[in-house]
Amino acid sequence: MKIYGFVASPPSRAVEITCKFAGVEYEFVSLNLMKGEHMNKEFLAINPRHCIPTIVDDDLSLWESRAIQQYIANQYAPESSLYPSEAKARAKVDFWLNWDMGSMYAAIAAAVYPKMGFAPIPDDLAAKEAKLAEQIRFLDGSIPSGNFLTGTDITIADISIACGLTMPCLVNPNFLDDFENVKAWFGRVAALPQFAGVHGQFQEFAAQMMAAKAEEEKNKPQVKTAF
After folding, report:
1. What family is it from (predicted)?
2. Closest-CA residue to 14 (of 54, 69, 72)
3. 97 Cβ contact list (under 8 Å, min separation 6)
4. What is the pLDDT of residues 163-196, one digit of tens each?
């Protein structure tokens, strides 16, 4: 399997981590969105929507990270608890995946990505931050004590949501301090070696990116104002 993705992208990392949990061998093809590498001709021939992550597995080309996670679990780990086959257990995972896509990750993109320079700062940023806090309060009240989202086993929903939360935590390392259950749950997910390895690569990339940005700011010509 080939994964076309970018280490800074939470959905890309969610797919890569799912592969690790499912025991899938893969080749990661990095496409740096900031350099426009996702617009190259070769990638457009695979995915005309030029979004990441995208996978190629034999004759299958597929994008949309949660659909990819579902495919990986179904194809390579059908008996695992990553995406349980029993209807009610699977419905719980599907609920969280849909909530993540429509509510949590949308709120993260709206409230956090402008601060990272990925989108213009909106006039109603404070309202978007409040909306994100509302989503996390809901998550905080929904996690079973000491467990993962749907019980004692990690699922692809835990992976997807935890990857999204790395972005507000990058902007503010203390972001989860007011959400005790979420913070403890995130710690449980992040401690698993399949997650930790990919997350560590992201942290290293983010540190380099922030250092480069700080250096750029430092070297900007100073504008002197005469009075």
Report:
1. Belongs to the GST superfamily.
2. 69
3. 66, 69, 70, 156, 157, 160
4. 999 999 999 999 999 999 999 999 999 999 999 9
Query: Kind of pairing, strands 2-5 and 27-30?
Result: parallel
Q: In which residue are the tokens 């499912």 written?
A: 22
SS3 66: helix
pLDDT tens for each residue of 156-167: 999 999 999 999
Q: Known catalytic residue: 9?
A: yes
DSSP helix/strand/coil, 3: strand
Calpha distance 83→67 (Å, rounded): 12
Give dist(CA 41, CA 94) in Å, integer: 34
d(CA 18, CA 34): 25
- What is the percentage of the chain residues whose pLDDT exceeds 70? 94
Neighbours of 20 (CB within 10 A): 16
3-state secondary structure of 56: strand
Task: Encode burial over 155-194: b for 16+ CB neighbours within 10 A, e otherwise.
Answer: bbbbbbbbbbbbbbbbeeeebbeebebbbebbebbeebeb
**Which residue in the list 9, 12, 81, 160 is annotated as catalytic?**
9
pLDDT in tens, 7-59: 999 999 999 999 999 999 999 999 998 899 999 999 999 999 999 999 999 99
